[in-house]
Amino acid sequence: MHCPLPRPRAILSLYGMGGDFMTSHYVSPKTSPFFRGRELLDVANPEFQEFQYYPSDANEKAKEPTAGVTAHSPLSYHPRTYHIPGYPANPRMLLPRLYLQLGTYLDYYTGQHEPSLSEKLRELSLGTSLNDASTVRSEIIARMLGSIPERHSSLFPQLIAPLKVRSGEWPLTVFVHGTDDTAVPIQESRNLHQLILTSGSSLVTEATPEADETRRASTDAEEKHGNVFDEVVEYLDHVIRDRT
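Predicted structure:
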C-alpha cells in the first residue's frame, strides 16, 4: 500500500489489521474480557500513565503522553514466581490492548486526540452493533469512513485498497487468518478480501485456519497448521516465479 516503487508482486497478509477498523473492537470501550479471554487492564495503573493522552476539560489543559517515541522496545516478561507467571514486564507490550479496551485505539493510531477520532466514530455509530452485517450497518460504516480526515486516509487499508485495485496498483493478495482470533478479528481480512474483489481484482486467495494458534508462539502451531503455511509458501513462490 505504501510501496509504489518497486511495487511488490504479491502481499501475504498474516492476521492483518486495517481491513475493517469500523468495528466495536476498535471503537467501543470494553467492560468485560475481550482479548483472548484475558482480564481487563487497570487503566489507572501508574505504569500506563505516561502512555495515555488526557483530554482537556474546563479546568485543565490536555496532557500529552510523556513517554518518548521509540522504534525499539524489547520484549520483557516477569518470572514464573510472579503472581501472573510470564506476564509482560514491559508496559509498552500491553498498550494495544489498553487502547482497545478504552475504545481509543484509532486516536493513538492516527495521532488525532482532540477532537477525538474515536469519539466521533462512536457518535456516528448511533449505538448500532458494528459487528453485524446489515444494510443499516453498511450505511453507518459509510458515514464513519467518510468522516475520517483525508490526511489519515492512507492509514486505512479499507479506504486505500479499492482505489489501488481500480488503478491497477494492487498486487495479488493472500490472506491467512485464524477464525477464532480475538486480538485481530478475522472480519479484518474478510472485509478487505471482499473490498478487493468487488473493486475488480481476481488476484486474491484466502486461507483461514479454524483456530487462533496461527498467531501464538505455541509449540503445536506448526503441527496443526503446517499444511496451510506450506501451501501459502508454495503458492507465492509459484506466482512470483511466473511473474519474474
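Summary: The chain is about 35% helix and 5% strand.
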